[in-house]
Amino acid sequence: MRRSPAHVLSVLAMALCASASAPALDLDLRKAWINPGFYSYHLQRDKDLNNVNTGLGFELPLTDTYSLTAGVFDNSDRATSHYVGLYAMPYRLGPFKAGVVMGAFNGYPKAFDGGWFPAVIPVVSMEGRQLGLNVSFVPTVGDKLHGAVTFQLKYRFTD
């Protein structure tokens, strides 16, 4: 994945903002997750969609239920997308959590001319000490967004 300097700077700016505000919010950055994007199993198998959505993302827990998230990735249309959001995961069973991620995305050429749009996406997560997996369902929205089940591996450097 080739990134322009502007994309790299935007990810670095997000990381800097998170680290600068962490002490004021009493956040522990050691609990942050990092991910390399995700894999999408598209529902529309007859289209030539990008399944390997490489990128860079962060998830910062606020509590056991809520986490902030932000990142950049190559989307299904092979364009660059950014996202910001909040995970709300109120349901638990052992290492599994379930809920939604609410946020905004951009970069999809047929959705709002590539501009930002809101989204609420159901998600199930399994988290260990340092390795986790988010599984989400993205519905098809006309010819604007391609439905998929997504798999996002995440890693935490410290436990």
Task: Determine the mean pLDDT.
Answer: 87
State the secondary-structure class.
mainly beta
Q: Can you write the helix and strand succession as a string?
A: HEEEEEEEE
Shape, please?
globular
Radius of gyration: 15 Å
Give the spatial strand order of the biggest sheet.
Answer: 1-2-3-4-5-6-7-8
**Largest sheet at a glance?**
8 strands, antiparallel, barrel
Q: List the uncertain runs.
A: none
The helix tally amounts to 1
Which range does the strand content fall in? over 45%
What is the total tally of β strands? 8
Helix % is 10-25%
- Terminal Cα span: 30 Å
Set out the fold topology:
Blueprint: H1 5-25, E1 33-42, E2 52-61, E3 66-74, E4 80-93, E5 96-105, E6 117-127, E7 131-138, E8 148-155
Antiparallel strand pairs: 1-2, 1-8, 2-3, 3-4, 4-5, 5-6, 6-7, 7-8
What are the defining features of this structure?
1 helix; mainly beta; globular; 159 residues; 8-stranded antiparallel beta barrel
Task: Describe the model.
- This protein has 159 residues and is mainly β.
- Helices cover 13% and strands 50% of the residues.
- It contains one helix and eight strands, in the order αββββββββ.
- The protein has one helix at 5-25, and strands spanning 33-42, 52-61, 66-74, 80-93, 96-105, 117-127, 131-138, 148-155.
- Strands 1-2-3-4-5-6-7-8 form an eight-stranded antiparallel barrel.
- A hairpin with a 4-residue loop joins strand 2 and strand 3 (66-74).
- The radius of gyration is 15 Å and the shape is globular.
- The model has no long low-confidence stretch (mean pLDDT 87).
